[in-house]
Amino acid sequence: MEYSSDMSAFKIEETPPPLYTVYFEDYLRPKKLQTKAHLQHFERKVGKISTVAKSLKRLKILRWHSRIIQRFQQLPLPSFLGFLRARKDDGMCKRKSGFEIYCEMASIHGFHVFVGAETWQRIFWWLLICTAVILSNVILLTAPKEAPTILFIDSMMKATSEIPFPAVTICSLNGVSKEKLQKRAKEWKVSEETLRNSAMEELFRTNLSWSQLLEDLAPLICEQIRSCKWENHQESCLGELKPFWTFDHRRCCSFNHKKELYTSQLGVSLVLNLQKEDYAGSIIASHGFEVLIHESQSVPDAATMRMMIPSDSETHLMVRSFSTRFTANLAGLPIEDRRCFLPDEHRLWFYSAYSLSNCLSECRSKKIFQSCGCVPPHAPGESTWPICGLQQVECVRKYDEISEQITAVERDCNCLPPCTFHRYELESDVSLIKGSNSTNEVRLNVYYDLAFTEELLLDVYETWLAFIGKCPWAYSINETTNKTSAPRIKVSFIYP
């Protein structure tokens, strides 16, 4: 069979395009709307129907239930609840409002019902949300008025190098120097027993003053410190030691008083020479020192953390610090409710920095001046206030006995703790010096226990921000930042 090589003989005829008849009247006629259109639709699996389900279908109560639901759906809604009506479109062609977009993207369980469910379901969820809002408001309004503030841990990783190192005040357990006692007894022509026991009747015959008696008989503590090292530096810190008088009229030696030093974990190391032969009036039946740890800008009082150090020992005082600060919400509360002073809210007339112990010290001096007409030696006071003499010692003692039984509020001192302060706790490790044959040497090391500490935050117990957080419209949004890109928002979706 021969085939012709001429392909032109075979011509393919092109079929004409199909024609569609469109009636213009039908095109303009409005389309029939769908009765129901959900965002998601899943077909129910057809399985075996149990006998229980078959028997329930025969009951008339199910028929009544369906009729009630149909009538409930036919009830007209007010105009302001129009957004609760079921959607009549598929949610894709119709332009969505901001409320509808929020409901579709919110991670709160049930909010998607507002844009993809029937009317009765929307009303049900709306009633639940209104109930939650009312209950949140009730919690806010019924918050405890006795304690409107709350203190909680804000951070566990605050570096101790950012917290000021506390003041280390060293006091001797010896109240009277034996050498000075013998010397002054000859000069004043008074027996040593009279000076040691402070026999007032015999001391009144002399021309001594109370301040002179304290200055001349108290032992010198700073001279007993032989070595001082700060952060293990080669330079000695003996020049930083300052004499200091406590509220119970004891001469002590303080390191870092009225200063702000910061350290990591090395702290201060001291070597003291205990002069046992100079003891003439020991406070307790022991030899050694008493170490007080307090804020550098505060004076020590009876509530100050302290530790007894025996002779011929090496002591490690491990300090654990706690920092407390406040939020901006606290400034909106009155002083009677927050029970603390903001910075620069309450100034003192004698001390430059405010603290509770400084305020109580000033109040004590003012009350003693009002009752006795003078102030004790080395106590805060005005330049015009006289210093108490030996005749007023009994008056001062009576006031101190009474003041121990009343609080600062009853004393009308107007002293409250500051809203920002630092607190210190102590842990000690005491061991005897090896090979020590009563060398009267005491080694003291004070440093931070940990490199990190707790930071406490003082805030209002119930605020409007907390109220919004309890309401159901607050959904969680996780913000993740990148150094090279702009912040992104991650929204989690929850479907039933």
Keywords:
496 residues, alpha+beta, seven-stranded mixed sheet, 14 helices, 26% helix
Please describe the topology of this protein.
Elements: H1 24-28, H2 51-57, H3 60-73, H4 98-105, H5 113-116, H6 119-141, E1 149-159, E2 167-172, H7 178-188, H8 192-197, H9 200-203, H10 210-217, E3 225-230, E4 242-245, E5 251-255, E6 268-273, E7 288-294, E8 305-310, E9 313-326, H11 335-338, H12 356-372, H13 393-403, E10 421-432, E11 441-448, E12 452-460, H14 464-470, E13 477-480, E14 488-491
Parallel strand pairs: 9-11, 9-12
Antiparallel strand pairs: 1-12, 2-5, 2-7, 3-6, 4-5, 6-11, 7-8, 9-10, 13-14
Helix pairs in contact: 6-14
Summarize the structure.
It contains 14 helices and 14 strands. It has helices at residues 24-28, 51-57, 60-73, 98-105, 113-116, 119-141, 178-188, 192-197, 200-203, 210-217, 335-338, 356-372, 393-403, 464-470, and strands at residues 149-159, 167-172, 225-230, 242-245, 251-255, 268-273, 288-294, 305-310, 313-326, 421-432, 441-448, 452-460, 477-480, 488-491. Strands 1, 3, 6, 9, 10, 11 and 12 form a seven-stranded mixed beta sheet that branches. Strands 4-5-2-7-8 form a five-stranded antiparallel beta sheet, with no helix packed on it.
